[in-house]
């Protein structure tokens, strides 16, 4: 099923950090979404990450010129996609997890530095069963920093 919906009346948001944590299993230091500005199920999400100098990765990436690692920017987009998936498929509280399957066409345009508010814009492109395809862009003050297409799968949590 290809997903296309421009129904602004169905928009959800904002969603605060408690709502984000209810949708995602990630916790500090790997939780990379601080707030959802808006979300339209079956369509799109705009989330944000407040990038702070206190992030652990800035200690070594890079001393004297701290920038957020590109893989973490892509992870932030994927986490935003996870929130979109949970809301779209009504998975909140189900224990289901959204796992990364693939990343395509990742491009990094501008560095993300401490003190920035990273805007994460993710579109749901397609749902086929338990597999979802997305495109995402990460921006700071309207300037494109990173973009990628990626695929995720809905799965049951591991059994201990």
What would your notes on this structure say?
By secondary structure, the protein is an alpha+beta fold. The chain has helices at residues 17-23, 70-88; strands spanning 35-40, 44-50, 97-108, 117-128, 131-140, 143-155. It has a six-stranded antiparallel β-sheet, covered by helices on one side. It is globular, with a radius of gyration of 15 Å. The relative contact order is 0.20.
Strand order of the largest sheet: 1-2-4-5-6-3
Q: What is the radius of gyration computed over CA atoms, rounded to a whole number of angstroms?
A: 15 Å
The major β-sheet equals: 6 strands, antiparallel
| DSSP E strands, number | 6
Tell me the structural class: alpha+beta
**SSE pattern, N- to C-terminal:** HEEHEEEE
Oligomerization status of the protein chains:
single chain
| Mean pLDDT figure | 93
Q: How big a fraction of the residues is strand?
A: 35-45%
Helix content: 10-25%
How far from one another are the termini? 34 Å
EC number: 4.2.1.59
Active site: 61
Family: Belongs to the thioester dehydratase family. FabZ subfamily.
Subcellular location: Cytoplasm
């Amino acid at each position: 099923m290809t997903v296309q919906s421009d129904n602004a009346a169905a928009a959800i948001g904002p969603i605060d950090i408690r709502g984000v944590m209810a949708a995602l299993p990630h916790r500090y230091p790997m939780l990379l979404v601080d707030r959802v500005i808006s979300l339209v199920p079956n369509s799109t999400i705009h989330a944000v990450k407040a990038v702070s100098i206190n992030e652990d990765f800035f200690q070594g990436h890079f001393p004297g010129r701290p920038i957020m690692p590109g893989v973490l920017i892509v992870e932030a987009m994927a986490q935003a996609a996870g929130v979109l998936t949970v809301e779209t498929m009504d998975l909140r509280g189900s224990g289901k997890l959204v796992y990364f399957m693939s990343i395509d066409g990742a491009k990094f345009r501008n560095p993300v530095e401490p003190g920035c508010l990273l805007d994460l814009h993710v579109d749901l492109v397609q749902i086929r069963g338990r597999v979802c395809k997305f495109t995402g862009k990460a921006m700071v003050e309207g300037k494109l920093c990173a973009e990628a297409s990626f695929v995720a799968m809905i799965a049951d949590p591991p059994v201990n």
